[in-house]
Amino acid sequence: xxxxxxxxxxxxxxxxxxxxxxxxxxxxxxxxxxxxxxxxxxxxxxxxxxxxxxxxxxxxxxxxxxxxxxxxxxxxxxxxxxxxxxxxxxxxxxxxxxxxxxxxxxxxxxxxxxxxxxxxxxxxxxxxxxxxxxxxxxxxxxxxxxxxxxxxxxxxxxxxxxxxxxxxxxxxxxxxxxxxxxxxxxxxxxxxxxxxxxxxxxxxxxxxxxxxxxxxxxxxxxxxxxxxxxxxxxxxxxxxxxxxxxxxxxxxxxxxxxxxxxxxxxxxxxxxxxxxxxxxxxxxxxxxxxxxxxxxxxxxxxxxxxxxxxxxxxxxxxxxxxxxxxxxxxxx
Length: 332
Ligand SMILES: NC(=O)C[C@H](N)C(=O)O
What we know:
This protein is of the alpha+beta class. It has helices at about 40-60, 65-80, 125-135, 140-150, 160, 165-175, 245-250, 250-260, 265-280, and strands at about 1-5, 25-30, 100-105, 110-120, 140, 190-195, 205-210, 230, 235-240, 285-290, 295-300, 305-310, 315-320, 325. Helix 1 runs antiparallel to helix 2 and helix 8 (about 250-260) crosses helix 9. Asparagine binds next to strand 9 and helix 7.
């Protein structure tokens, strides 16, 4: 179990931030997917991308934007970055095609929007937000979601423009290895997510993914469901990543918030939820969580998880265990 924390590290549970702030702080935390090891050659690009996304979300909050605006902005940035498995750079399914899932939720009134198995759209998170705000529904899938996107004036992005050389090679390798989607071997890295707390005390989350490489056509994972993320102003906001089938079975995001509801610290809640998934199903993954007072945690059981958090103007980020770095906010 790995936890991001400001200045020290280790395997015991310690809250990432002091509890109970007096005023509502602006907080944004982002993740770039629970992963096996990230190659040294990609680490810098991944670190840069994740820091920029957290900064984008924080700048939106500072300019008076809502928590929903912040998570949408941060996740859009990661969807546009080919280093991550969401939007441009999504992993390929067994047919060599992209099918993406995304969701967003406003903790103020529990309004939620999700899309699954969408193709030819650059930013599924924006479509999920439109489902939340412009339809009487929470969830649109496949053809219906694409028709709705066209009705909303979202331009079509040809599939070839979302596919990269890296994702083509990834699929080839997976097919050669007959890549079974094992719960305890999360090779499928790069799903992205964000959680935010705004100046009005509103919480939100967004999660977006291409899913898992070499998945069956039509497979939908946890990311567009309440297992892949949840936000409730009374409790907190969570975005999850990892083995989707395991995450769905334990309803990971809501499970973590259940522990918050029971009075646990964010660190304890994340640990209990991830440990349960691991002990029950051997499922590995990670999550980011902010509670209503602005305490946050980034925690994972996979080998690594790129994450970044901005609170009180200070950016902290890391990928591996014992690797928290504090730095100035980058200029976007
Ligand atoms: N890397 C991931 O987080 C994959 C995502 N949870 C899915 O199973 O669709």
